[in-house]
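In response to reviewer comment 3 from the previous cycle, which asked for concrete evidence that the modeling workflow produces usable outputs, we include below a single protein chain processed end to end. The sequence was submitted unchanged, and the resulting structure tokens are shown without manual editing.
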Amino acid sequence: MYKPTLIFDFDGVIHSYTSGWKGADIIPDPPVEGIRKAIQDIRILYNIIIVSSRCYQKGGIKAIEDWLEKYDIIIDGVTGEKPPALLTVDDRAICFDGKSELLLDKILKFGTYMQIQQNQ
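The workflow returned the following structure tokens.
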């Protein structure tokens, strides 16, 4: 059965990333709350590929794979290259709504969900 692919960012979407960047092969924090179950449910209909900038650095892919195994999170692949996909789940993205004239303002005002929570 064919399943479309979804791209998931790793840090801030799967890995809670509360400690910030410590290196490509150092992943100190637990998963985002509820993400294991969400991924398990989503994988019924979609393939999930993690695309992370960690993958461009030595030890990054292995570190992600080891971390996923530690937390029993099953996905379909880890890469640094963006494959063809139906959509992307990322905490550092803006959904383009066709209003080009508003794009710079959206970029300047952008914050991740963690940044927004900290400022409330």
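The helical segments are 35-42, 60-70, 103-109, 113-118. We consider this sufficient to address the reviewer's concern, and the full set will be provided in the supplementary archive.
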